[in-house]
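Why should sequence recovery work at all? Because a backbone constrains its sequence more than one might expect. Tight turns favour small or flexible residues, buried strands favour hydrophobic ones, and helices have their own preferences. The token representation captures these environments compactly. In the example below, the structure is given first.
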């Protein structure tokens, strides 16, 4: 079990198999509120699978996950989750994919507001069952729509996309597309924001603009988990760096410990390999 019983996000004993391949082999991880944790490691080390398990896109075979003291997942609980309950749990997390996953038929603004508006539509449907006053329902809908619009405008400013408000994904650069994906994830106000290799699909000259937005989110004291291959970025933005290899966490600690004083042979070899690729 993890040592810090008061951690904001606690993962204990996550395992995951795909067929005969064990991808996660008993992951224990604590994350504090407002902490930025980067996960590094070679391809196939289990980084993305761990992130997908945290976001309820994969189901661990074993393990427990709690968020702010509430158990979100326990493999010992055999009760089948309803779709609504599962979605409620997923809303605690926002995930920014490496391949953007924007809706090509919607403008930047509509990509950002789509999910909040769909959630509002469902809330309004539920409200109809309890609130018989039509004027009260209309007032609720108007107020909530205004909140969604105001939040979207704020996110456009935050991500530097105000001038692209009405553009479509096909009209955007890779960096702009990724910034839309970040704004879209933030629109649902997740408690933890996750990134899966947010710059891997970008040309080097576009990477900086995305990293700048992520760094600005750190300044807001936002809790984030970032799977990344950008070692310089990980060193600069992280409160904690987690090094994974072969489905286990081999080493974790402050950036200075991981990058300047690696202990395990596996981490030393990984960092040397990264340096060789970068031509250092």
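From this structural description, the recovered sequence reads:
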């Amino acid at each position: 079990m993890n040592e810090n019983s008061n951690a904001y996000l606690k993962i204990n004993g996550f395992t995951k198999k795909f067929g005969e391949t064990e991808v996660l082999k008993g992951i224990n991880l604590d994350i504090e509120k407002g902490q930025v944790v980067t996960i590094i490691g070679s391809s196939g080390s289990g980084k993305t699978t761990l992130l997908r398990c945290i976001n309820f896109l994969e189901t661990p075979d074993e393990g427990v996950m709690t968020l702010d003291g509430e158990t979100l997942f326990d493999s010992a609980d055999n009760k089948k989750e309803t779709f609504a309950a599962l979605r409620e749990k997923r809303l605690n997390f926002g995930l920014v994919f490496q391949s953007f996953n924007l809706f090509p038929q919607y403008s930047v603004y509509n990509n950002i507001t789509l999910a909040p508006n769909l959630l509002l539509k469902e809330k309004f449907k539920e409200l109809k069952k309890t609130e018989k006053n039509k004027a009260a329902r209309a007032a609720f809908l108007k107020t909530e729509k205004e909140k969604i619009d105001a939040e979207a405008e704020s996110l456009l400013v935050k991500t530097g996309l105000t001038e692209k408000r009405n553009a479509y994904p096909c009209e955007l650069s890779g960096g702009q597309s990724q910034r839309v994906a970040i704004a879209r994830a933030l629109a649902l106000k997740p408690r933890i924001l996750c990134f899966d290799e947010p710059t891997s699909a970008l040309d080097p000259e576009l990477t900086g603009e995305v990293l700048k937005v992520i760094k600005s989110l750190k300044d807001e004291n936002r809790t984030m988990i970032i799977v990344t291959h950008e070692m310089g970025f990980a060193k600069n933005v992280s409160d904690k760096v987690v090094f994974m290899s072969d489905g286990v966490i081999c080493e974790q600690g402050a950036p200075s410990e991981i990058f300047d004083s690696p202990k395990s042979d596996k981490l030393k070899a990984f960092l040397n390999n990264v340096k060789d690729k970068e031509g250092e």
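A few observations help interpret the result. The first helix runs from residue 47 to 54.
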